[in-house]
Amino acid sequence: MSVYYTLCFLAALAIFIAFANQYVVKIQTTIAITAGSMLISALLVLFGKLGWFNLEPLAVKTMESIDFQNFLLKGILGFLLFAGGLGINLKALRSQKWEITILSIVATLLSTFMVGYGFWFIAKLLGWELPLVYCMLFGALISPTDPIAVLAIVKKMKAPPQIAIQIEGESLFNDGVGLVIFATVFAVAFGGVEPTFGSVAGLFLHEALGGILFGAVLGLITHVMISATDDGSLELLLTLCIPTAGFAFANMIGVSGALAMVVTGIMIGNWTRHSGFSEQSSHHLDHFWELMDQFLNALLFLLIGLALVLLDLAWRDWILLVIAVPLCLAARFISVSLPYMAFRRYRSYNKFSVRILTWGGLRGGLAMAMALALPSGVMMLPEHGVDLREVILVMTYSVVMFSIVVQGMTITPMITAAKKASGHY
């Protein structure tokens, strides 16, 4: 069966789970799809172990036929980030520009180092002498909050405006920053780049600033073209060119396509929406991209749950699986708390801000895609018979599933308390 047909059937399964959820469990749709697909994966593995309906090999083959890294990082990520950028209120974003900038860059870097060193220390306790750069790879891929997961779950709970714009803005921008950090560490680990300050900073700035600049140019060109026509259908089709050809071209020239999509989305959503679109297409813009976003989100969260069949858990994996979650949560809490100690000198904030940003800092498909992008058979510990890629994949999966299912389902009381504290309840 072709990959296209596989994705068609998986998309149908995701929508079926969402349909059943509204009558059975009635929880947030993306959580229901992730939990439902994970349950399906667990049952397939269990039945395979018991010799019943041995469909596990077929499930593994199906999942392996999908290049998750290319499908997300070089494919639908552009659509999801552009759709997220469209919904950002630029006026509100400006009011929190310093907080979002610091959380996106400083907090992500702090978390990367804390998780990396924490993993290195834990591995040492297990008797593994790991190169620090490999541990930093895990820190880099797990530290950014995932805008796809965050926007799909937290935004719909209507957090107080100040907290909402920080969560949305940080998740959109630190996604791009996180991808750049991961690409930089990856280049040091496997690409022969010397780990000097100049080479690392140069690579980081090229991708990050190049992506922002490219996004601004792309947004300007699209604005001019949309303003030059009154054909409503053509105006919407022009927005489709951004996360397709625009995203692909950004990746081809070596700049951050993720940051480019966020910048272009904000420009189209706040500038072109009011001065470039005809009345007809302006009315349909949000509906069109919301539907696109929901469809691709459903498929992505299904794939995250089904990725369980790709994991082959050994005894050591269960230890790391349990350790990974508190390690990442502790790093997230500290990396958010430290900037807020400085923020509170100049402005007052909701007393639940740090807690919501910590517990609402969800991880999702991006972390999984980056973990799957690690080369197999290269990060070997031959004396222990361990492929570090599989270890990182297990740790990443445990953090992703915990954040989406447990954190996603339990953040509502925290947001409700924040609303009461700010008078928005």
From TrEMBL:
Gene3D superfamilies: 6.10.140.1330. It is found in: Cell membrane. Keywords: Antiport, Cell membrane, Ion transport, Membrane, Sodium, Sodium transport, Transmembrane, Transmembrane helix, Transport. It is a multi-pass membrane protein. One of its GO terms (molecular function) is sodium:proton antiporter activity. Pfam families: Na_H_Exchanger. Residues 56-415 form the Cation/H+ exchanger transmembrane domain. GO terms for biological process: regulation of intracellular pH; sodium ion import across plasma membrane. The keyword Plastid does not apply. InterPro entries: Cation/H_exchanger_CPA1 (IPR018422), Cation/H_exchanger_TM (IPR006153). GO terms for cellular component: plasma membrane. The chain crosses the membrane at residues 30-50, 71-88, 100-120, 132-153, 173-191, 203-226, 246-268, 295-313, 319-340, 352-374, 394-415. Belongs to the monovalent cation:proton antiporter 1 (CPA1) transporter (TC 2.A.36) family. This is NhaP-type Na+/H+ and K+/H+ antiporters. It comes from Aeromonas hydrophila subsp. hydrophila (strain ATCC 7966 / DSM 30187 / BCRC 13018 / CCUG 14551 / JCM 1027 / KCTC 2358 / NCIMB 9240 / NCTC 8049).
